[in-house]
Specification:
Distance between the termini: 43 Å
Structural class: mainly beta
Shape: globular
Strand order of the largest sheet: 1-27-26-25-24
Number of helices: 1
Helix content: under 10%
Length: about 400
Amino acid sequence: MLSIVPRPLLRCTAVAVIGFALLCPVLWGEPSSSSPRVLASLWQKHVRAQLTSLDLSGDGQTVAFTTAPSGSEGDGHLYVYDLTGRELWTATRGLKILGLSLSEDGQYVAIGTMDFSIALFTGDGKLLWERQSVGLPAITPHGKSVVTFNSGITGTTNTLLEVFQRDGQKVWSLRRKGRIWRSITSDRSDLLMGLWNGEVLLIDRQHRIAWQQMLPQEIMALAMSPEDAEYFAVGTGVISPVVHLYERKGRLIWRRELPLGVTELSLARQGEFLLTYGNTIHGQHLALYRRTGEVEWSYHLPTPATESSKAIIIPNAPLIIAGIERDRGYYLQGFALTGSLLWVAPVPEPMFDFRVSHDGRYVAAATDTTLYFFDTQPVDSQKAEVQR
């Protein structure tokens, strides 16, 4: 049983029961007017290999994924498609490809292989350059540079990260003791990193350490507000989980204990909302907080998901999308900011990742062997758009 608990009224009894064509179990706690749509994938791609990474451009026009052979030998492959499912181009490497990153407009694709080398391609498949580095790549907004984060190599002093310009020139690196456990890049090219030793670093777009702090517990999740990058959040701890919300300059706005755990965080523009997601021994749990710290609503399933999942606030739409496992079924679920369930997208297998376009319309979800691509816009709206 799951519950959605809007603020300030606690709904303790079910007021609606919805069957999803025998694919989706019964939902409890939904408003009586709730009638969520059931989405089917627009298209899907099945491969005879294991998917290892996934990305979707911010405009939703380009989706890319990588695969690795099931055995210890064989090539790694990169596949790039457009939003209709048409294959644009592919690339092959003799080593396993561990990660990839697409620019917001899909004009650049970066991959990282298990020997710590990275490669940057143009949107039509031309290889621009390859370099040895320290970790997996992340393309900064507008494709201006590629950042690699070190999460594996350790020593007395390490190169924690390297920054390459689009032409392949390395322009900056940070040497510091430790390894990176969590890292994100803001829409303004700030770098927020959590190290294995509990230290958090905020590096601004001029490559200056703008803020740093040692936290008493493990860094579990990070988030920065989209576009403005004026707020950031840090989730810490396995035994006694806590979420912290900060202003950009490092002033703590509030902190809250999260008894059910935290594994992912997401912020709305200007920090208006903070979404926490936990997949722990206590089950799957979402909670939406206002910037002032009040809980808007929460959603809880007592059983943990078998795959690590996440939930995100969509930057340019009043929408939250979460990966949910319930009664041995796997779903993407779209929530309004009020907590009402808008749509459900069943997926036949556990998802290890999903990506969403900035407007919330397109969603790409990856299982071990298949990519699923969804259009969340209602069919009537799609027809109207075609007619226009």
